[in-house]
Amino acid sequence: MKYELTNLSVIVVIKVDSEDRIRNLNYILDYYNQYFKGVEIVILEQGEQQLFFKQEGTSNLENTIVYHFIKDNGPHYKTRNLNLATRLATRKIIMMTDTDVFVEPKVLSKALCKMEKESSAILSPHNGVMVEVSKSFFSLNSKSELLDSLVFFPRSFKQKMDQFDLSNIYPIYGGEYFS
Description:
The chain is α/β, with parallel strands linked by helices. The protein contains five helices and eight strands. The chain has helices at 19-35, 78-88, 105-118, 135-140, 143-148; strands at 3-4, 8-14, 36-37, 40-47, 64-71, 93-97, 130-133, 169-173. 19% of the residues are buried.
């Protein structure tokens, strides 16, 4: 199922310090294209040279990608870059995220509906649970296999650990607070 989120701009700022950042960004783009349509994804890259290049065929995707590069090899000025990327966004609702964060599709859709109904200014669709995906799982599976097997752990995962296959994707902390 694809969720239509035409009011949403997803902002991702990146300073590439490893190949993992590029890989993660490509996974995030594939993830949004697999589960959402109508989303505007704003990518702002900071660095000495451009290291991220939009993949061929991105114009055929159901989401819009806005890319901007800032030539600056200083420290990652994340706040500045988020503010600049926000100015590039054209949608009513803005979500700032990192290259290694996957938000459960139904939770993101529900959060956006809640924002629109209640005229909320800020909402974080995150239950506090952070997970790790084993490096071997990345190398042994295709992107689609990995994206199809993502597990979104509930806040109460600690009481239900025996219900999950923890061999490749496992919680590293969280579940103690609501966002």
